[in-house]
Amino acid sequence: MGFSCGIVGLPNVGKSTLFNCLSSARAEAANYPFCTIEPNVGIVEVPDARMQALAKIVGPERIVPATTRFVDIAGIVKGASKGEGLGNKFLSHIRDVDAICHVVRCFIDDNVVHVDGRVDPVRDASTIDTELILADLEAVEKRLDRAKKMSKGSDTVEKKAVPFLEGLKAHLEKGEPARSYKVDDDDDLKGVLRDMHLLTVKPTLFVANCHEDGLTPDKNPHLKALLDMATARGDQVVAVCAKIESEVAELPPEERADFLASLGMETSGLDRLIRAGFKLLGLGTYFTAGVKEVRAWTITNGMKAPQAAGVIHTDFERGFIKAEVIWWEDFVNLGGEARCREAGKLRLEGKEYVVRDGDVMHFKFNV
Question: Is the pLDDT assigned to residue 69 strictly greater than 90?
Fold first, then answer.
């Protein structure tokens, strides 16, 4: 599934450094604005301890984790919505992603210049927000003009669109993102909103780039200020230290856990970021578990069994009969499929079954 998170932020906040750690692709990281012009794309494995637990039971030939895409988008500056810096190009790159990871600098370092001369995460976050909102405002105003002209005829959708777009315009003018604008349960209006491809309608996650001794709000007032702002908006914050993540990324995989433990960390900031990004996209995972492979399959939340089967192959969806379903903890605790069957923990589910994040599934189909 081609879901993607765009990494955005002001210049010099650590976006490319984090992207380098996230991905095997190596982005250019330099201490000046606009060193990232074309967006780099990294396919990132989603860490999932459940897979290792399933693999211990099954002993498969290989393990295939879920993946998601992270896109490193160049630093946005004030005036980007009017083409400042390389604004229009960057904004079009954001338009192409499904969700936004907004990196905000929450550390002071005299050796790393700040584009506005002083670290202030709330101001920095609002600088980016303002540019995205201004770009959206322009799109809404154009669409509103069109709706007003077309509503003079008999088009009922355009007649409904006028008050809807006027309300959205007023909402954006107050500095509020489109994702917090309440849309009636009306397919026509949802279509109007969707077709505008607005930037601030995308789910957003803040990534606080901190010093290694400032990863908690009680030790870092910049992080606390960002957390307070995000919490008030209903957005999530993941605190990471790009410097630590760079060091972790250079270690052999078998040494990483010990290094993190020596710093008092259970998991890396990037693992938390990847999982948070996956969740932000509204994604979940079900598993297939056999001797050939244990594999994680990516689904959208609320997906029913036939559509989930179709993620493996369209024939599975087309000829879906039923699904054998075991909850992953039962699979692990009881020691595999046969014992789950004996214990009555294997269920047969039909076309209306909504797949849970963590189901182990086997599909019956006939084409």
Answer: no
At 36 the pLDDT is: 40
State the average pLDDT over residues 69-88: 60
Are the CB atoms for 102 and 204 separated by under 8 Å?
yes
Q: Residue 356 gets which letter from DSSP?
A: P
User: In this predicted structure, what is the pLDDT of residue 44?
Assistant: 84
C-beta of residue 85 within 8 angstroms of C-beta of residue 313:
no
Number of C-beta neighbours around residue 208 at 10 A? 31
Tokens of 239: 């605190």
Give the C-alpha separation, 161 to 194, whole Å.
12
Cβ atoms within 10 A of the Cβ of 252, count? 6
What is the CB neighbour count within 10 angstroms for residue 300?
A: 15
* DSSP H or E segment with residue 326: strand 320-327
Going by C-beta distance under 8 Å and a sequence separation of 6 or more, which residues neighbour residue 47?
65, 267, 271, 274, 275
CA–CA gap between residue 327 and residue 339 (Å, rounded): 13
**What is the rounded CA–CA span in Å between residue 330 and residue 188?**
44
pLDDT of amino acid 37? 40
User: How many Å apart are CA 282 and CA 150, to the nearest integer?
Assistant: 35
User: Could you tell me the two tokens for 174?
Assistant: 């107050």
Does residue 75 register a pLDDT over 70? no
Stated pTM of the model: 0.79
Between CA 10 and CA 76 the distance in angstroms is 5
User: Measured at the alpha carbon of residue 339, what is the angle toward residues 333 and 344, in degrees to the nearest 5?
Assistant: 95
Q: Pick the closest to residue 118 from 133, 126, 108 (CA basis).
A: 108
